[in-house]
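User: Sequence in, structure out. Go.
Assistant: Echoing your sequence, followed by the structure tokens.
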Amino acid sequence: MNGTLALVGGREWTEGCSFDAELIGEGSEVLVVPAALAYENPGRAVERATRYFAELGATVRVLDVYRRVEALEEEPARIASEASVVYVASGSPMHLRSVLKNTPLLDALVGSWRAGATVLASAEGASVLCSHMVDSRGGAFTVGLELITTMTVIPRYNQWSPEKWHRTVALAPSGMAVVGIDEATALIRSPDGGYHVSGVGGIHVFVDGKPADRSDLPADLGPTTD
């Protein structure tokens, strides 16, 4: 068993993110993970999230973990293990990876999803979940958290130049799906492994250097769904 996974292209908690109302029921508590924003005024983003979800009839609980030492503590992992809706914010993928990798908190987040929680991860927060994490500075790959091994994500695809996404697609391993996701758009994987797209933009799938269809996306994400 596992829950729903929404990979968001960025510009989370803004007008046009219609998928949030679809995925987050009225009365829900959303556990916001702003660790990637540690050096980008996370308080301001949390305030925006709180106002945004209040309009949907939901409340926000903030997981105040911004350093690796905090992710190693027991209490954040306990909180994450009890969450039914988790939202991983965008920000610095390198910092988020350094905070979460090989920690009880990451294990708890994955465990919650496997137990049926809905997990949304935006932009760099989505890319870092992949084994092949896209480096937005130039379009090459670096190592992510290795939770998703069968595809990789280009967030904010609508902001990328042709040169960058061509490079990413060309460098992708054989058979791996490369998915460009526009801002305020979500690629949503349901518990049965099916996909649909929601929001103001679209997704753009490439396999082996060529355009592909949503039907080519893998139902199995890799170790996460073992």
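User: And one key feature?
Assistant: The chain has one domain: 5-225.
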